[in-house]
Amino acid sequence: MAAFEELNVADKKKEMIAMPRHSFIQMTKLHNVMGRIDYITSTVKQENLYAIYATQPLRSFWKDLAKCNREEFAKSGTIGKYIEARELIIALPEGLYHYEHDYLIKHFATDFKKKYGVDCYAALHHNKRKTNFHIHLIFAERTKLEKPVVKVASRNMFYDERGKHVRTKKEILDASGDIRNGCKIIRKGEVYEKKEFSIKVDRFKKDSFLDEAKVFFTNEINQLVLHEEDKLKVFDKNSPYLATKKIGKNNPMEEQIKADNEVRQEWNRTVDRAIVSGVSEEDISRIKKNEITEKVRYSIDLYGDRPDLLASIIKLAIAVLELLINRIMRVAVAAAEKMLEILPAEGRNIEAKTYPIMSLLAEKYLSFQSIYYELQKQNEVIFAQEHKRSEMEIELLECNGAFKARKRGGLQNQIYELNKLIDNMKRYLSSIVQRHGYDNVRDFYSTYYAAKGEYADYVKDVEEWNVNHVKKNENIPTEENRTDRYQIGEERNFMRDKDKEYLIKKR
Asked: Helices 281-288 and 310-329 meet at what angle, rounded to 10?
């Protein structure tokens, strides 16, 4: 029982190590691209600068690009600030550190240009403590034209202070007849416009681009990693889980982000438990949308960007989800029977000529079954402790009067310790599937039910083969094969007995 009730320090460390890693890519708009290039390539400003690579290394290219973007922004009359370029910060698994650094940075930069058709300037870094291996990749939103487009004035042209083209000279003169400051005249025959770059690529402005870039770089990383545990996954925004945020260097919001991440992980652990308890993914996603997404949006509209309010919103959502879990755990055993019982596929009439072969996924079903029952058992232990806590809370509410102060204090301490215990037990539940290489319970259940279906098909195929062949004394397997193949009946009976035992205990 102790193994289910608490996580010691070693267990917590193991849990942290086993936590699956999602790819982290951040994008920012650059208002001073030359300053940013100088910063990421400076051996003075960077603690550990390993390599630099640019698909377009000429500084004149980036200066001209910046100038073009400033001029085009001024012409547009848009309110705000011009964007000279964009930057992606890409977190890398530490396992990639052992690659030759020049090769590594060149690989990512050239593949990015090949994919998106724009030039980039990249640098490979480690932070001071060497805990964050990453790439800074600055990229242009325009491409350089093979031939500049040059426009020559066919007559005198007049521009006001805002750079706007006006029809007559009179429109740029002051009361005394002089040209106002900031206005200018382009004489006939002079070049009034020279375009060296294309228009901005719309793709980079869309909200979907960052998601697209995450998929691209995650695939690039996973092709290079040597160990399976170093592979990354792109976080699914449509899943019932919440993504945690990465804390950058010298981030003034570090403590706030840590607190937010903890409450996000608490929600994710509650989602794991909800799935184990039989709550549908649709119901979980509905609670996430109504209690978190919509309320966060409303909070931003009402109070502005207030990260300190996020924790309270998520905790309320956790409470709503836990109420649903509590309700599901009290439903009739018939629901559990329907979920647990292996139902053979209907309408199958297979006349197999050879003995059925178990698929690789079906072979894993029995081991998956043990993980599944461990999750169920742990969930029941948690539920029992929560029931115990509820009884204590009721007793505390009824414990009034001056003479019961000591008893109240004792109950409060017991509830406090019980809350810590329950929290550790929830952490342990999530760690069960993580130890076996799954991100979360949702991913495990997807594989588990797929294996369960294939195993049920195999059982049905064996039964039909026995009817059609064994009784006719045709194609009977050898004694060598019989040891493996005929134990299916025993395995099936064992599993049914185990399910019945589990259901009896629930009653």
From this structure: 150
Whole-number Å distance between alpha carbons of 425 and 65: 56
| Domains, the chain, with CATH or none | 23-143+200-230 (3.30.930.30), 154-189 (no CATH), 254-332 (no CATH), 340-506 (no CATH)
Q: How far apart are the first and last CA of the chain?
A: 20
Please give the helix or strand (H or E) that residue 355 lies within, else none: none
Q: Which of 75, 79, 82 is nearest to 162 (CA)?
A: 75
Taking each helix axis as running N to C, give the angle between helix 441-465 and helix 405-434, from 0 to 180 degrees, rounded to the nearest 10.
60
Give the pLDDT of residue 162: 80
Rounded CA separation 32/30 (Å):
6
Nearest to 56 by CA among 119, 142, 138, 137: 119
Average pLDDT along the chain, 507 residues, taken 10 residues at a time: 39 41 86 95 92 95 93 83 94 90 95 94 91 93 87 88 86 90 89 85 89 90 82 77 72 76 89 88 89 84 75 87 82 47 45 72 86 89 88 85 81 89 90 85 86 87 78 49 45 51 48
| Predicted pLDDT at 12 | 41
pLDDT score recorded for residue 52: 96
Instruction: For residue 118, count other CB atoms closer than 10 A to its CB.
Output: 22
Six-digit token pair at 210? 């960052």
**Can you tell me the distance from the alpha carbon of 112 to that of 119, in angstroms, rounded to the nearest whole number?**
8
Which residues make Cβ contacts (< 8 Å) with residue 235, sequence separation at least 6? 22, 23, 241, 243
92: nearest Cα among 105, 81, 111: 105
**Tokens coding 491:** 């395995």
